[in-house]
């Protein structure tokens, strides 16, 4: 394989724990621990992302090399790799959880490509680390397929996210109790190699502060600014202030995108919030099918619904407040920290407002639009309408001859469609009047809408079908889904089957409508 250029700044410039001692423990005075992947029985490459390979400077020849599966299955290291697990803490479900750390993620190193871009490579499921607590450091095929596909799908939807290079089956079994109900079973193991400029999370900053280790916090803050935010200018304090504001801004933009496409992360704990504003840690995430702001895919959150779709913008704000608390000791100007909260709120409403306007095909939102827009969401909920199909098909409404016909495929239940027929009809009249005010040519309106309303998202049941097939040794659907999701805004009529609403059998099926954190 073509060698990669590694420049491992995180481990070179920041204090680490190099005991090489794997047993679970509290790690103090260090931001990372030296680790080694634990070898697996029989690694096989199941799928890779050609775009991510290209980012690293690799071609199909490198991917096909027999060493590829060995390296990305954790059996071999490439020259220059220095594996480590990061030490971080986090707030989980609203409470401080103490030290968490990379329990089954291991960074292999930071590559710098021909364009000077830094890409860190990280294996997920390569064995235990000092942060594995009572767990095994492994990952199962189902969760790895989900992480691989969704990372790439999100990227192609234009949403900031970590990427995925490869999905390797390990040939080993992994014991999991999927619903924590005493029914543990052996499942096939797998490893994803994820790729991002940095995997630093809010929780990396929270942990040193919680321990009063302000020196360590300061080192990490200035390192992150220097490596990941080189565009910031001014003295140390000025940079730190701008940095916090930029994190608030990016987080708002990321969450606005989630809301645009109906993505529900499912576990927005502060250890799952990227300092770069990337979507990170794909676990029990899901996509809205019938529009329901209270929906969460995560069974662990079924009661509290803390991380349901509609809560995500508020949770982003809450998480930033935890980051603000963690950074207080190193940012002297308190007003900057408060300004972050306002910037988050303003950025979110401006960004989401623009997205909403584009989704409905109007030039710009005004306060007068609130009633009919709220009316649409209320009806989408009451009448059980598929969010993705509704918005995509909305572009097909013909202003000369408006009917609800194009929207019919988005309804899950005929009885509810009939019950709300009249309300929808009067909504359509209002909507068409509003469109007429803008005088956008029909083709332009449709193009504008189709650029923000995807035809294809990684529907929960599709991911599950690809998983079931892959578990039986058939990668066909996995490959086909990746291919379709590379162009989510294109009509791709030959692939219409992947745009269909959730079939009835999937309504209450495990993996399709409910997911656990078990992975
Ligand atoms: P998550 O909910 O996946 O973000 O994980 C929360 C914490 O648990 C992180 O520190 C993970 O690294 C750790 N963790 C989750 N699953 C495992 C596992 N199978 N083995 C070791 N650590 C794990
Ligand atoms: Mg996590």
Automatic annotation (TrEMBL):
Q: What Enzyme Commission number(s) does the record list for this chain?
A: 2.7.7.-, 2.7.7.108
Top-rank lineage group of the source organism = Bacteria
Instruction: Tell me its cofactors.
Output: Mg(2+); Mn(2+)
Active-site feature positions: 271 (proton acceptor)
From the UniProt record, list the reaction(s) this protein catalyses. L-threonyl-[protein] + ATP = 3-O-(5'-adenylyl)-L-threonyl-[protein] + diphosphate; L-histidyl-[protein] + UTP = N(tele)-(5'-uridylyl)-L-histidyl-[protein] + diphosphate; L-tyrosyl-[protein] + UTP = O-(5'-uridylyl)-L-tyrosyl-[protein] + diphosphate; L-tyrosyl-[protein] + ATP = O-(5'-adenylyl)-L-tyrosyl-[protein] + diphosphate
Give binding positions for Mg(2+): 272, 281
Q: Does the keyword Nucleus apply?
A: no
Which residues are ATP-binding? 101, 103-104, 124, 136-137, 194, 201, 281
Sorted alphabetically, which keywords does the UniProt record give?
Answer: ATP-binding, Magnesium, Manganese, Metal-binding, Nucleotide-binding, Nucleotidyltransferase, Transferase
The record's section on Pfam families has: SelO
Q: What does this protein do?
A: Nucleotidyltransferase involved in the post-translational modification of proteins. It can catalyze the addition of adenosine monophosphate (AMP) or uridine monophosphate (UMP) to a protein, resulting in modifications known as AMPylation and UMPylation.
Family statement drawn from the similarity comment of this UniProt entry: Belongs to the SELO family.
Q: What is this protein called?
A: Protein nucleotidyltransferase YdiU
What organism is listed for this UniProt entry?
Answer: Thiothrix lacustris
Q: Which gene encodes it?
A: ydiU
């Amino acid at each position: 394989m073509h060698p990669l250029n590694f420049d491992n700044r995180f481990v070179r410039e920041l204090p680490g724990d190099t005991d090489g001692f794997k047993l679970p423990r509290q790690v103090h005075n260090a931001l990372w621990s030296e680790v080694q992947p634990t070898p697996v029985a029989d690694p096989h490459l199941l799928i890779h992302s050609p775009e991510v390979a290209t980012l690293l400077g690799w071609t199909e020849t490198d991917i096909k090399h027999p060493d590829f599966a060995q390296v990305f299955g954790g059996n071999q290291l490439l020259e220059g790799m220095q594996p480590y697990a990061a030490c971080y803490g986090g707030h989980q479900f609203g409470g401080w959880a103490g030290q968490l750390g990379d329990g089954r993620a291991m960074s292999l190193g930071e590559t710098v490509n021909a364009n000077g871009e830094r890409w860190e490579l990280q294996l997920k499921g390569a064995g235990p680390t000092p942060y594995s607590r009572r767990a095994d450091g492994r990952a199962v095929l189902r969760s790895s397929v989900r992480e691989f596909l969704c990372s790439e799908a999100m990227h192609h939807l234009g949403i900031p996210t970590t990427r995925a290079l490869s999905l390797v089956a390990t040939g080993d079994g992994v014991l999991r109790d999927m619903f924590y109900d005493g029914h543990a079973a052996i499942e096939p193991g797998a490893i994803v190699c994820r790729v991002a400029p940095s995997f630093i999370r809010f929780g990396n900053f929270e942990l040193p502060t919680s321990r009063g280790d302000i020196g360590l916090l300061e080192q990490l803050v200035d390192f992150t600014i220097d490596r990941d935010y080189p565009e910031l200018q001014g003295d140390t304090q000025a940079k730190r202030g701008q940095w916090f504001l930029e994190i608030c801004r990016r987080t708002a933009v990321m969450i606005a995108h989630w809301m645009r496409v109906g993505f529900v992360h499912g576990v927005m704990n502060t250890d799952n919030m990227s300092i770069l504003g990337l979507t990170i840690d794909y676990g029990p995430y899901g996509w809205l099918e019938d529009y329901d702001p209270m929906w969460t895919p995560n069974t662990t959150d079924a009661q509290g619904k803390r991380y349901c779709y509609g809560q995500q913008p508020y949770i982003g704000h809450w998480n930033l407040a935890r980051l603000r608390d963690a950074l207080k000791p190193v940012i002297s100007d308190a007003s900057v920290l408060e300004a972050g909260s306002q910037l988050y709120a303003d950025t979110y409403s401006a960004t989401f407002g623009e997205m909403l306007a584009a989704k409905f095909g109007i030039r710009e939102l005004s306060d007068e639009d609130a009633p009919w827009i709220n009316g649409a969401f209320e009806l989408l909920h009451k009448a059980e309408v598929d969010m993705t199909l509704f918005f995509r098909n909305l572009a097909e409404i013909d202003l000369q001859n408006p009917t609800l016909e194009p929207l019919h495929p988005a309804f899950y239940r005929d009885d509810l469609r009939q019950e709300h027929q009249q309300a929808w009809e009067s909504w359509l009249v209002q909507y068409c009047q509003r469109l007429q005010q803008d005088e956008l040519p029909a083709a332009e309106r449709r193009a504008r809408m189709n650029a923000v309303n995807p035809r294809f998202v990684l529907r929960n049941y599709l991911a599950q079908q690809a998983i079931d097939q892959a578990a039986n040794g058939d990668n066909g659907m996995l490959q086909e889904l990746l291919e379709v999701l590379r162009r989510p805004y294109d009509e791709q009529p030959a692939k219409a089957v992947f745009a269909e609403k959730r079939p009835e059998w999937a309504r209450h099926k495990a993996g399709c409508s409910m997911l656990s954190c078990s992975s």
